[in-house]
């Protein structure tokens, strides 16, 4: 057997183990009976241990070393070897003691966080979080970085992106978005109260399935279920599952979660399936993944053309709730900008202030300039400064997100990066595909999907996020595209004068 084939078979085995583990996690969130939990945690840990053993094995290390010298490999094979080497070298930097200590601490901190959130008592979470921050600082040191320790953490989610780049991006957010949102807040607000009437859950479920079908989601390669937090998971490009949640008194929760997860799922369904097991069959980065969900959610489905196609049907499903609301009022209502406390239900503009606050705090914690004990005070002060809202308790403040209790530092910026990529990609798609928005207006979303498949999905991980963005749009990530999109859309909705939207 050739060395490359041996390498590919070993990676495929590791991929299989990880995907089987994902099946168990999906089942845990959607189907498992309550008593299943005790052994499920153990089963998942067993599979994770087996995958980790193979991924850090001498055998894999030797295969990679040999293949790095092999000049007969084609481009894609070389890329696979380079990506595998990167992962292998990184995982070799973790000692067994560190991995065990971190996973125990995460499990304890997560439980402490749940209790702290329930009882609205930050001091229950603080000691665990303090230890987690110390471990994360150690992790930065042994992973290594060029300029800033936080670089090592972002790199795990958004490979190649640096702290300096994120700082520059958020400087744009701050300097551009603060005044714009302020002007919006001072304008007359559209009515969105019709969204919180009563909407039957079975009808909502049917609607969600239709919206997914219309996007081109392949139900022969996936399914939708209900879970408390919507997510997408995949076991191969031919089995990509989504979940949604339904709130009978908030219609748009289901709509946005279906379309958002649908966007993630279309990306996974479009990855190069004949490369299953090889690193190039994977997604590029979390920011790139989020660009796919945000493009569908914000650029497509919060747009007027999308509802020109879909609103009459929605009205006929819910005549009592929406019969007297015209298309334009509906479109304005679903795009209402309103500074709020909770990130996950924020509108598409103020969302980025939520991320900015978390980024500034994480950076400060890793630098040692912010202490865990001071977090509630700092959190509340920044919410007042950037969003103008008073935080009434820590449950709706510093304790709202699960990420830190999982030890996920460096993750939050990828949410904003995703939205900014989405605006840049969408703008390019409109240029590349004549009549794209007319098709959307006619309910035909396949030209949109076709563009994403052709330009992004089918390449898998062959390019880095930076290379991909440049290849598709001719330039690196640039906030001005988001600005242009947002100013045009919200300027029109809020009737803002041209100098404010220039
Ligand atoms: Zn997402």
The share of residues in extended strands comes to under 5%
The outline comes out as: globular
**Using only CA atoms, what is the Rg?**
23 Å
Biggest sheet descriptor = 3 strands, mixed
Mean pLDDT: 95
Ligand roster: zinc ion
General description of the model:
The protein has 502 residues and is mainly alpha-helical. It is 65% helix and 3% strand. It has 22 helices and three strands. Helix 8 runs antiparallel to helix 15 and helix 10 crosses helix 11 (286-300). The protein is globular. The structure holds zinc ion.
Q: What would you say about this model in short?
A:
The protein has 502 residues and is an all-alpha fold. It has helices at residues 3-30, 37-55, 58-68, 75-92, 96-119, 122-143, 149-157, 163-185, 201-215, 251-269, 286-300, 304-317, 319-322, 327-334, 351-367, 375-387, 413-432, 436-441, 446-455, 465-473, 479-494, 498-501; strands at 224-226, 232-236, 239-244. Strand 2 (232-236) and strand 3 (239-244) form a beta hairpin.
């Amino acid at each position: 057997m050739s060395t490359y084939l041996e390498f590919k078979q070993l990676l495929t085995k590791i991929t299989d183990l990880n995907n089987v583990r994902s099946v168990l996690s999906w089942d845990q969130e959607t189907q498992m009976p309550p008593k299943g939990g005790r052994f499920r945690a153990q089963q998942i840990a067993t599979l994770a241990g087996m995958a980790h053993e193979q991924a850090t094995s001498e055998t894999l290390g030797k295969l990679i070393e040999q293949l790095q010298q092999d000049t007969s490999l084609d481009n894609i094979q070389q890329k696979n070897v380079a990506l595998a080497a990167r992962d292998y070298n990184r995982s070799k930097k973790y000692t067994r003691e560190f991995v065990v200590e971190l996973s125990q601490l995460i499990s304890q901190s997560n439980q402490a966080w749940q209790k702290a959130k329930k009882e609205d008592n930050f001091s229950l979470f603080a000691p665990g979080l303090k230890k987690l921050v110390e471990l994360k600082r150690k992790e930065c040191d042994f992973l290594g970085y060029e300029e800033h320790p936080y670089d090592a953490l972002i790199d795990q989610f958004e490979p190649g992106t640096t702290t300096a780049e994120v700082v520059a991006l958020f400087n744009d957010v701050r300097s551009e978005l603060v005044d714009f949102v302020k002007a919006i807040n001072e304008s007359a607000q559209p009515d969105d109260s019709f969204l919180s009437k009563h909407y039957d859950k079975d009808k909502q479920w049917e609607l969600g399935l239709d919206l997914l079908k219309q996007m081109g989601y392949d139900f022969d390669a996936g399914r939708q279920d209900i879970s408390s937090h919507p997510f997408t998971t995949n076991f191969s490009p031919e089995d990509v599952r989504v979940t949604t949640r339904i709130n009978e008194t908030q219609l748009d929760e289901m709509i946005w979660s279906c379309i958002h997860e649908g966007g993630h799922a279309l990306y996974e369904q479009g990855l190069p399936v004949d490369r299953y097991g090889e690193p190039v069959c994977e997604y590029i980065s979390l920011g790139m993944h989020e660009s796919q969900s945000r493009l569908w959610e914000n650029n497509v489905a919060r747009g007027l053309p999308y509802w020109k196609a879909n609103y009459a049907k929605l009205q006929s499903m819910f005549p009592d709730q929406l019969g007297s609301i015209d298309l334009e009022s509906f479109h304005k209502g679903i795009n209402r900008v309103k500074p709020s406390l909770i990130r996950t239900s924020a509108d598409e503009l103020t969302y980025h202030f939520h991320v900015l606050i978390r980024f500034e705090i994480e950076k400060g914690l890793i630098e040692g300039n912010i202490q865990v004990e001071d977090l509630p005070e700092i959190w509340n002060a920044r919410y007042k400064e950037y969003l103008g809202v008073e935080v009434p308790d820590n449950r709706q403040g510093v304790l709202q997100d699960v990420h830190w209790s999982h030890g996920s530092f460096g993750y939050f910026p990828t949410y904003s990066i995703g939205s900014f990529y989405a605006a840049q990609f969408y703008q390019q798609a409109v240029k590349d595909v004549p009549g794209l928005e007319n098709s959307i207006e006619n309910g035909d979303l396949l030209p949109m999907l076709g563009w994403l498949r052709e330009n992004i999905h089918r390449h898998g991980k062959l390019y880095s996020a930076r290379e991909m963005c440049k290849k598709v749009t001719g330039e690196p990530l640039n906030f001005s595209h988001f600005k242009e999109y947002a100013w045009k859309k919200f300027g029109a909705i809020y009737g803002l004068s041209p100098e404010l939207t220039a």
